Amino acid sequence: MDVNYRLIGSRLCQRRKELHLTQKKLGEKMHITSPHISAVENGAKQPSLETLLEFCKVLDINIDYLLNGTIYSEIDDQIYDKIKLCSLESRKKISKIIDVFLEAEKLEK
Q1: Confidence class for position 107, pLDDT limits 50, 70, 90
Q2: Are 70 and 35 in contact (CB under 8 A)?
Q3: CA 85 – CA 52 distance, rounded (Å)
Q4: Cβ pair 101, 107 in contact under 8 A
Q5: pLDDT tens string 19-66
Q6: 21, CA 20 to 30 Å: which among 37, 60, 82, 99?
Q7: Spatial distance between the Cα atoms of 106 and 20, rounded to a whole number of angstroms
Q8: Which residues make Cβ contacts (< 8 Å) with residue 47, sequence separation at least 6?
Q9: Start and end residues for every CATH 1.10.260.40 domain found in the chain
Q10: Secondary structure of residue 4 in the 3-state scheme
């Protein structure tokens, strides 16, 4: 299996921007330099497995997403399957509960 480091870097960059993090801020969280972050995001450097796992931890993504672009995890599938079984009214309530969690996460950042 060939590893496409440019694509991995692109996914890292996209996620970093989704979280409104600069390369400098991400580097501070990971204890690496912003030029190193830039080189990884551009595919110029091939990060170690340990560094990739640290990216995943800090950016709250899974390694499968980085390597294959798979966004959903097994737990996502389980949640989705359970929600599909709920009535429309229950799904509306679940949506409101999720909104509360999302708002709380915004406040934590």
Answers
A1: confident
A2: no
A3: 36
A4: no
A5: 999 999 999 999 999 999 999 999 999 999 999 999 999 998 888 888
A6: 99
A7: 12
A8: 5, 40, 55
A9: 5-68
A10: coil
pLDDT of residue 2: 83
The CATH architecture annotation of domain 5-68 reads Orthogonal Bundle (1.10)
Compute the CA torsion angle 46, 42, 8, 57 (nearest 10 deg).
Answer: 80
pLDDT in tens, 60-101: 888 888 888 876 666 777 888 899 999 999 999 999 999 999
pTM strictly above 0.85: no
The pair of three-digit structure tokens given for residue 24, joined into one six-digit string: 């400098």
Which positions ≥6 away from 109 have C-beta within 8 Å? Answer: 19
